[in-house]
Sequence to fold (925 residues):
Amino acid sequence: MRTMVLLQTKLQRPRVPRHFVPRPRLIARLDQGAQGPLTVVCAGAGYGKTTLVSAWIESLATENQSQRELVAWVSLDERDSDLGLFLRYFIAGLRTMFVDACPATFSLLQATRQPPSEVLSATLINEIAALPQDFILVLDDHHRVTGMAVPELVGEFERHWPQPMHLVLISRHMPALSLASWRAKGQLTEIRVRDLRFTPDEAALYLEQALRTPLSRPAIDLLERRTEGWIAGLQLASLSLRDAEDPEGLLAGLSGQDAGFAEYLAGDVLSHQPAAILSFLLQTAILDHFCVALCEAAISSEEGWNARRCIDWVERHNLFVSSLDSYKEWYEYHQMFRDVLLPRAMAELGSDRVADLQRKAAAWFANRGLVDEAVRYALAAGDREMAAGFVAQGLCDVLNREDRPTLDRWLGYFPDEFVQNRLDLLLVRGFSLFLSWQVGPLARLLPRAVALLEQESGMVTAGAEPGALRGCLAVLCAFVAWLGNDVDGAAAYSREVMALLPEAWLFVRSGGALFQALAMQASGQWQPAVRHLIESYENLGDRTSVYALRHLQGLCLVYYRQAGDLEQVVQTGQRLVEAAEHSRLSLLQGWGYQCVGLAHYQRNELAAARQCFIKLLNFRYTANIGALRDGVQRLALIHEIAGEQAEAWEMVQLLSQLDLDQMGHEGDETRALRARLWLMRGELESAARWADDFAAPVPDQAWPWHDPPHLIKARILLARGTAADVQSALEILAALGEVAERSHNVRLLIEVLALRALVLGALGRAGDARAALLAAVDLARPGGFLRPFLDLGPRMREALDQLARQEDFPGLPTVRRILAEFGDQPTDPAQGGQEVNRPIRVLPPGSTAGEEFSLQPLVEPLTPREIEVLMLMQAPLSFKEIARGLCISYNTAKRHSINIYGKLGVNKRRAAVARAAALGLIPPR
Fold:
């Protein structure tokens, strides 16, 4: 029902009225204009703009039946001034012609962070340009869109027009576009008032069809002069004259075309209608669109009329009503006629009666799942309580889609003080913060929500199942508790979620299942957590839902935090990526790439890790911000390890921009990453300045992925090496180790112990250093963790080498493997212990870890960055798109391509891809 209503009220072409006068001269203009990119039909109300374009579309379908499938129609209104909402309907229109058109743009519209308009427009234009056939898209009532967001998007079309599209804009005034260049190039077709006015012959033909008694030719000419060819004026006059005793005498007394002319004629027309019809017109005037069922639900039938018969009567008498679909189910009034009806409705019905009608309409839409329509009518009635109840009713569905923009749009309907006193709306805000990973604001919101839950006035039952609001609050509390290492609290809240919420709440229940498993792992029960997740997942009928995929995400995180088998992380993460892509759950797809990338990084498979993190960057606006931030940090380290210092610095700048977008200032993690790169480059003084300034205590938080800034500070203090520095580093590591042990974060504990071993060695405590290193190796052995040791550079290699020369012990094979990974590459001790320009290993397609091979088939080998460019050159992407995907400049991308051609001995892109695949440098396409 929901899809039907949306299509019929927004995406359906209005039918051509019965008394339409053929206008071949204008149809020919439209035919000719369709050869170019843009047609603008612009005139005031009542000039037949929509009717003309609809008749033209109908003529195309008559000439070529297949053409019907290549035309889309979108009727706009004030709500479409929001660029995100406009694009949703724009894409819905395209999908009436091309199934699943513009998937990337549509994914961005559901992003957890609003992408810049230039990103949206570039993505949309590229996807339209890739559509397989030419098409016509009509945007009706373009004048109802306010602001500059939509006009700026259309302006982007002008600069980079997607070839398959011919756009038709229908508007009462000229769009806010720079049309001069279009005119100069002959690429614009304009139809204005002078073109749309009826000629005397067209006016005569129309009146001959509309009037029962024909007028004399002099009277027709007089009416045409009085109306100046204004079609609505002719229609109003014909309705007024139809029942007049002396039509020509009445006509002689009419004034010319002005605002009063329309009001006078409309009033005269309304005065001649039967009482039941007049009542019907006034009551339905409050509805943007209406159908029989809506009328029966919203409008009083005390006068004895029948909705179906009234609609048929109004349509038969041509009272400015248009059918919106071929089934004659949905209708709307001409805006000019509705503008006359609405003030009269308010005057005759009264504000209370109008508000009652709007409430009934709101309830009708809400019962059909059309929450936005329901909220709009409830707010028009001045009933915020009712509107908030409808939001609560729609919350489950929106969360299941992970649709944060809709949550934010709903919040925008209400003032902040009203939101603060409604539990349902406060939860909407809470989930918006949750999806955008704004942990601090969410934690500050929860006490108020808990207080409202304890008050009867805070409970809202409209649209929410019993206990649903309590269950929604519980999952947010579980999230904050888990991040704060309150394991018992996270477990208790998670159990509450699963007990209170029915299965329909897939997203919220999936959070309960996830945090329950993570709480089990954090309390030392990681094996029961894994068994629980696997058994629950395998018992599900639908393994592609958000609820099922959260189980896979949970498995990845549990394995990773526990330092379990990294191969399990890779396999589970890949399954998560594939299933999330199938279900179009971008947030979870980003999580999948992140988990697989982390596993590859820890196994020192840096090329594979790089590819995962680059793919994660493609989900910049739809991925979880925490996962994205860590992926950017890891990518910066990979670039730095490969000697790509400029690219590493680009990642720092990207991380800084993410901070500014979300918090308005640069965060500690970004500053810490910058200091770590300084340390790796031997710029110890710069790194130490940050370390001296960073004085935040070690927080009691869960670090599921990245290295906390405190760990980086400890590395810098060790590198500077004064007695006070080394002692401070030891204290930091003691605090970090205590948090890691208590939360069973084994992955973090490995890094803490490995660095602690070096710190203890610097203090001359050789026995304690050896014990810490043995403990780190023992924890790293089951999962195959390598990078915690490799990232510590020559000092760690020396410590491991000493360990390997001692007696046999269980971790000796692991130590030898780590030493083998260090290789024989020269190192620079000044660079904080980091090896210089160490080659990156890659995995050939279909291989497993351990089957790596070296990229040396050419006289001059390709760099890792050139391999990335080659991988993207396989896809139908422009070099601008490749540059954007790799976060480099266009000129840099072109320079890489030139280098690739030279090394491969080719001069074309396709030949480069083919040769690289043949050499095994990249997987076959």
